[in-house]
Amino acid sequence: MHIDPLEKKWAQIVLAICAFFIVIIMSDALFHSVNAPSNVETINSATLHLSEEFAEDNLGVQVDENGDIFIRMVAGRYSFFPKKITVPAETKLTFRWVSIDVLHGVHIPMTNMSTMIVPGFVAEIETSFPKPGGYPVLCNEYCGLGHDHMWSKIDVVEKDQWQAPQITSKGGDKK
Questions:
Q1: Whether 154 contacts 108, CB under 8 Å
Q2: What phi, psi does 137 have (nearest 5°)?
Q3: Residues 116, 131: Cα–Cα separation, whole Å
Q4: Which of 61, 79, 92, 152 is the most exposed place for a label (fewest CB within 10 A)?
């Protein structure tokens, strides 16, 4: 079998480019802490409303017995639930997102918060808002004809003006 020298040269160039990209990906993973999400938690999207954590009464902002703030939100076709939440500024917040139907994305402009919400998985993000104000929550993955109407709002207030909700247990049940 004869391989033309020009084809052999181009094959070597393609392999060199692939090797270069692999080196870049590996160096980012090792030196810049760019890694795939490690919190892989599954959930049954069909029975989501029956789960303790994502039942309708447990959505929104909650504080656990350690004082940690959790925000549980559900993405459903053309809406985020709840539609509006209020959180304190300059405080660590843990968002837990699930989808009840199709792939969604969540993006909060003017922050570093953006993730995909994959049906059957829980997306967890830790973040904080540096200053008070209104932050829109937008879907950045096309999810159907009503995609452009899929939004929610986060009101961020000063720490001393924020009223913490009732303390909950780790599973989301109210005490």
A1: yes
A2: -110, 120
A3: 25
A4: 92
Q: Yes or no: is domain 41-168 CATH 2.60.40.420?
A: yes
Report the alpha-carbon distance of residue 109 to residue 54 in Å, rounded.
Answer: 25
Q: Are 87 and 159 in contact (CB under 8 A)?
A: no
pTM score, whole prediction: 0.73
Give φ, ψ of 31 to 5 degrees.
Answer: -100, -25
Residue ranges per structural domain of the chain = 1-35, 41-168
Strands (DSSP E) found in the chain = 41-42, 60-64, 69-76, 79-81, 84-88, 93-99, 104-107, 114-117, 121-127, 133-138, 151-157, 167-168
- List the pLDDT tens digit at each of the 175 positions of the chain: 888 999 999 999 999 999 999 999 888 878 876 666 666 788 888 888 788 888 888 899 999 888 899 999 999 888 999 999 999 999 999 999 999 999 999 999 888 788 899 999 999 988 899 899 999 999 998 988 888 889 899 999 998 899 888 665 554 444 4
